[in-house]
């Protein structure tokens, strides 16, 4: 399996599958039917045996609940991660105000559906070449890991456990695959910016790794603090970074208001890292 073939497959799926556009039935408003959610992806490649995956299992990084690629797929040799930047229409619509725009809600929910379909298509494509491939995010073993100490009440007064971690982190996989670094907002800044979504595949195919794990996990962030200024609930600060509990609760409330969709992303638009690596 060659890198360029992977990149070509993802781009062909993005352009031609039809799933990168909001359907007429799903559109929140009639004029949003056909909205294109994602621009062309950027991809990064790592060896499944890269020691950086071991590092993720350390307490204080992610933790021992984060399996190695070979725990997901026996005989794993390679991992690739892809970042799909939100289209200009999606990004521009979400600038300003406290509520997520309808376009952003679509890109967050129907956009994730697109990524899930792409991930399964990549698994099938690999199988067609006699290779095994697995997308952790759509695998039955994928799970969020809840912290019993942090439980909110939902709008009906029932406990609603808060999860900030899972047994496969797309952004950490992107880091090991050399796609970029984290930002102050804990979003992930690639060369196509921070506003978008990630997916990843573990495969037994041998793909030349990029060997591009950054030295500094915040290397692409200028620490300008603009994301902190834009957060409607002050979940981000230069001093303390991001308070996930505050962010999570705000996003949950958007789910009450905009059910069945949710989202925010105000820290990802109108910021210097929105669609590129910012200058320091
Ligand atoms: S807005 Fe500034 S501080 Fe926030 S993540 Fe982007 S570059 Fe970093
Ligand atoms: S997603 Fe929204 S609530 Fe969460 S940190 Fe970003 S701006 Fe704040």
Major pleated sheet: 4 strands, antiparallel
Bound molecules: iron/sulfur cluster
Which regions contain 5 or more consecutive residues with pLDDT less than 50?
A: 148-155
Q: Average pLDDT across residues? A: 93
Globular, elongated, flat, extended or rod-shaped: what is the shape? globular
User: What does the radius of gyration come to?
Assistant: 18 Å
Span between N and C termini?
Answer: 37 Å
**Structural class label:** alpha+beta
DSSP strand content: 15-25%
**Total count of helical runs of at least 4 residues:** 8
Order of helices and strands: HEHHEHHEEEHEEEHEEH
Detailed description of the structure:
The protein has 280 residues and is an alpha+beta fold. It has a domain at 3-143 and 167-215. 29% of the residues lie in helices and 19% in strands. The protein has helices at residues 3-16, 51-55, 69-72, 88-93, 102-127, 170-176, 226-230, 244-257, and strands spanning 42-47, 78-85, 133-134, 144-153, 159-166, 180-182, 188-190, 196-203, 236-237, 241-242. A four-stranded antiparallel sheet has the order 1-2-8-3, sandwiched between helices. It has a two-stranded antiparallel sheet with strand order 4-5. Strands 6-7 form a two-stranded antiparallel ribbon. A hairpin with a 3-residue loop joins strand 9 (236-237) and strand 10 (241-242). The structure holds iron/sulfur cluster (2 copies). Residues 183-185, 221-227, 271-273, 278 line the site of one iron/sulfur cluster.
């Amino acid at each position: 399996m060659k890198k360029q073939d992977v990149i070509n497959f993802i781009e062909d799926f993005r352009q031609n599958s039809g799933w990168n556009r909001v359907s007429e039935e799903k559109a929140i408003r009639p004029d949003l039917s056909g909205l294109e959610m994602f621009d062309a992806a950027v991809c990064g490649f790592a060896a499944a045996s890269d020691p950086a995956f071991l590092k993720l299992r350390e307490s204080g990084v992610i933790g021992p609940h984060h399996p190695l690629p070979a725990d997901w797929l026996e005989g794993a040799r390679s991992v690739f991660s892809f970042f799909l930047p939100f289209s200009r229409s999606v990004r521009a619509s979400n600038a300003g105000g406290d509520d997520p725009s309808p376009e952003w809600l679509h890109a967050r929910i129907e956009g994730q559906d697109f990524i899930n379909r792409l991930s399964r298509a990549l698994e099938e494509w690999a199988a067609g070449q006699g290779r095994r491939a697995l997308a952790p995010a759509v695998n039955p073993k994928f799970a969020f890991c809840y912290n019993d100490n942090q439980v909110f009440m939902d709008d009906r007064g029932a406990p609603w456990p808060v999860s900030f971690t899972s047994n496969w982190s797309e952004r950490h996989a992107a880091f090991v695959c050399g796609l970029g670094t984290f930002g102050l907002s804990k979003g992930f800044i690639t060369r196509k910016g921070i506003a978008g979504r990630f997916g990843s595949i573990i495969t037994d195919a041998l793909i030349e790794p990029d060997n591009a794990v950054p030295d500094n996990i915040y290397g692409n962030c200028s620490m300008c603090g603009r994301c902190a200024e834009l957060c409607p609930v002050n979940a981000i600060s230069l001093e303390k970074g991001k308070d996930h509990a505050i962010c999570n609760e705000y996003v949950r409330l958007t789910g009450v208001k905009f059910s069945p969709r949710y989202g925010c992303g105000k820290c990802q638009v109108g910021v210097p890292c929105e669609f590129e690596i910012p200058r320091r």
